[in-house]
Amino acid sequence: MLFYLLSIVAILVAAIYLAHWRAGMRRRNDQSWDSLVQRLRPDWNAPALNYRFYGNAGQNATPEEMWRYVQGAQGLWAMYENARVMLEIADYAARNSASVDRDLIATLRSDAMQIRVCVLRALVQYAFSQVNESICVNAYRAASMYTDMAARTAQLLQVNDGGMLPACVAAM
Questions:
Q1: Could you tell me if 81 and 158 lie in one domain?
Q2: Euclidean distance between CA atoms 87 and 116, whole angstroms
Q3: Which residues make Cβ contacts (< 8 Å) with residue 132, sequence separation at least 6?
Q4: Are residues 16 and 51 in the same domain?
Q5: Looking at the 3D structure of the chain, how many domains does it have?
Q6: How far apart are CA 121 and CA 71, in angstroms?
Q7: How far is CA 110 from CA 30, 54, 84, 104, in A?
Q8: Which is the most buried residue in 7, 32, 49, 56, by most CB within 10 A?
Q9: Model pTM?
Q10: How far lies 141's CA from each of 39, 47, 72, 133, in Å?
C-alpha cells in the first residue's frame, strides 16, 4: 500500500516538474528581443569595467582593484544574472537566424557557465569571510570572462543582425 502511494506521489512530482519545465520553455520561446534586453541589469557600471579592464591593458589591474571595479558582491550578482541573459540572447539569435556561428554559441554557453561558477564561488567565500585574495581572484576571473562574453555577444549580434547591437551593448 505504501509503495503504491509513493509511486503515485513520484509520478505526480515528475508530472508537475515536466509541466513547469514545458511552461518555462514556452515562455522562453515567446520572448521578444526587447524583453531580453530589458532583463540586462543596467544598475551597475559594466562599461566602466570594460574601460578599466581593456582601456588600461598595459596596467594590469590587481585582484583588489578588480573587486572595487566590479562593485563587490552586487556587481558579481549582476554579472551572474547578465551572463544568463546574454546566453538567452545568443539562443534567441540562434533561433531567429540561419547564419549563426555554432562555435560562437558553444563558446558563449561555456563562458556563461564559467562566469556563474566563478561568481558563486566568490560569493560563497565572501559570505563566510572578509574580502581576501581568493575572493578577489574569483572576481577577477569572472570579470575577465564577462568582458570577453560581452564582446562575443556583440560580435554575434553584429554578424547576424546589426540592428540589435546598439541597445544590447548599452545595457551590457
A1: yes
A2: 12
A3: 125
A4: no
A5: 2
A6: 16
A7: 24, 22, 11, 10
A8: 49
A9: 0.71
A10: 23, 17, 13, 12
Region 76-100 average pLDDT: 83
Same domain, 43 and 103: yes
Structural domain that includes position 13 = 1-30
> Which pLDDT band, with edges at 50, 70 and 90, does 109 fall under?
confident
In terms of pLDDT, which residue wins out, 24 or 65? 24
In which residue are the cell numbers 572578509 written?
130
Q: Are residues 86 and 16 in the same domain?
A: no
The three cell numbers locating residue 23: 511552461
Q: Is pLDDT at 18 greater than 90 in this prediction?
A: yes
The tens digit of pLDDT for each residue in 52-78 reads: 454 454 346 666 676 777 788 888 898
If asked whether residues 13 and 98 sit together in one domain, one would say no
| 90-117: average pLDDT | 84
Give which of 109, 118, 116 is closest to 153, Cα–Cα: 109
Domain identity same for 24 and 40: no
